[in-house]
Design goal:
The protein is of the alpha/beta class. The protein has 20 helices and 16 strands. Strands 2-1-3-4-5 form a 5-stranded parallel sheet, with helices on both faces. Strands 10-9-8-15-16 form a 5-stranded antiparallel sheet, with helices on one face. It has a 4-stranded antiparallel sheet with strand order 11-12-13-14, with no helix packed on it. β9 and β10 form a beta hairpin. α4 crosses α16, α5 runs parallel beside α13 and α7 runs antiparallel to α8. The longest helix is centred in the first third of the chain and has 24 residues.
């Protein structure tokens, strides 16, 4: 009997150990940098998503659910994955339907142009991100050759190689993968696509049997699960041959009584600017996404009656995501659009989500007039700090101050993982003045006379700005 009990305990311990280790090495990325639309879906309460988008990076770069939330309280979600092929889109919808009952599903049609995956990383993102189930196994069997199917089903033969690349968010949950709504935010500006093929090519050709089968399966699923289905093409570079495929798909879809939106053909109507609205030749940036998502919002308002969920605590993930997006917009303001130190300080002092650390090194005689003006703006008398000083602000209030002759050390936990240390180590230990201000192991002080302002985003748990005045 004791042997049986020991055997059972060993088996239980082994299962728990394997489960814990797999949680660390498991795949956690569908768009990059630990951002996972799959995890975001699994953290979303049942029956909350009214509008679902599926597709590749063209989808999550062109559709920002928070724009729909801001404008009308629409609970939209991008279940999009980099390089998502058409069958992965189909099984993504089925995965969402396990817990959600969307009224409308938009399917991005980039997958019509190819079969399978062009990049191994994208294959991992699509085949390893969903929980192991009959649905995820069906996807693997659909797109993966028989010789490798078992590796993707078991997963261990693939993910065990991640040991060397493990990072912080393999051991703790990456917060945006909880409250994020699937979009891939980008404010980069590079020359985008021109649309001559989309605007001038009306030719069609016979659709492949594989593409017809996929469209038919999507339509059958929409009828079975009772959701409206809309196919769309995000703005991207398309030659005439590829445009012919989209035109043929549009014709076939509309013949089945479904809507098909080609944003390449709407480029002029939307005012898409190839020099401002794209992060690269194939993907919209935030400005381009605002135009594409705005069109979707108008479409939804015209054809569907959707509930405005703003203020409903059940939809707090959408509220959190909107706050997150606002913080990203604010970071852009700090780093790009705010030019002067005076404006920088004024903005930071009014920002409730920022902890501001001000460090001034150097004697009073070395202070410039601009630096003196900044100290006055902060309510600091320079004459009281002849050797400089350090100050910490939160919510517009100074919560700590010290001059550069003060022997004390100040510690502040900014988050569960980030600790601020302020100490005049250059005076006490003869070290470089750069180590007088430390965030974890990173130094943000300065050796030469002048001012350094460090902004830490309390909501996001990251540095949102760093500015210096010499």
């Amino acid at each position: 009997m004791k042997k049986v009990i020991r055997g059972i305990l060993f088996a239980v311990l082994l299962v728990l150990t394997v489960r814990a280790v797999y949680g660390v090495v498991s795949w956690k990325d569908t768009t990059g940098d630990y951002l996972s639309s799959a995890q975001q879906l699994y953290h979303t309460g049942d029956g909350l998503i009214d509008v679902l988008f599926v597709g590749s990076s063209h989808c999550y770069c062109s559709i920002y659910p928070e724009y729909l939330w801001r404008d009308g309280g629409v609970s939209a979600f991008d279940l999009a994955v980099s390089g998502q092929d058409k069958w992965a889109s189909y099984y993504s919808v089925k995965e969402a339907l396990k817990t959600q009952k969307p009224k409308v599903v938009f399917v991005e049609c980039y997958g019509l142009l190819y079969e399978g995956y062009q990049q191994e990383g994208n294959k991992f993102r699509n085949l390893l991100s969903y929980k192991l189930s009959g649905n995820s196994i069906s996807l693997i069997r659909k797109v993966q050759g028989e010789g490798e199917q078992l590796d993707y089903i078991l997963r261990w033969p693939i993910v065990h190689t991640r040991y060397r690349e493990l990072g912080q968010y393999d051991f703790e949950q990456y917060a945006p993968s909880v409250y994020g709504r699937g979009a891939g935010y980008n404010w980069d500006v590079n020359a985008g696509p021109y649309f001559p093929a989309a605007l001038s090519c009306d030719a069609t050709d016979e659709l492949s049997e594989e593409n017809k089968s996929w469209i038919d399966e999507m339509i059958a699923l929409s009828q079975k699960e009772d959701f409206a289905l809309v196919f769309f093409v995000a703005p991207k570079i398309v030659d005439e041959q590829r445009q012919t495929i989209f035109n043929s798909a549009a014709q076939y879809v509309t013949e089945q009584g479904m809507d098909f939106i080609d944003f390449g053909k709407l480029a002029e109507e939307l005012g898409l600017d190839v020099n401002r609205d794209f992060a690269d030749g194939n993907h919209c940036n935030a400005d381009g996404a605002a135009k594409v998502t705005g069109y979707i919002g108008d479409y939804l308002s015209e054809y569907f009656e959707l509930t405005d969920h703003r203020g409903d605590d059940s939809y707090r993930l959408w509220e959190q995501n909107d706050h997150y997006f606002c913080r990203l917009e604010t970071e852009r303001e700090y780093n790009i659009n705010v030019k002067s130190m005076e404006e920088y300080l004024a903005k930071a002092m009014e920002d409730e989500d920022v902890t501001m650390i001000v460090n001034v090194e150097g004697s009073l005689e070395n202070y410039t007039q601009e630096l003196n003006d900044c100290l006055e703006q902060l309510g600091i008398d320079p004459e009281q700090y002849p050797l400089g000083g350090k100050w910490v602000w939160r919510g517009g209030e100074c919560i700590f101050s010290m001059d550069n002759g003060d022997p004390q050390a100040f510690y502040l936990d900014l988050s569960d993982t980030d600790t601020l240390r302020i100490e005049n180590r250059s005076e006490k230990f003869g070290e470089s003045a750069t180590v007088n201000v430390m965030l974890n192991r990173a130094a943000y002080g300065r050796d030469e006379a002048g001012m350094t302002v460090l902004l830490y985003d309390t909501f996001r748990g990251v540095i949102t700005g760093l500015k210096e005045l010499k």
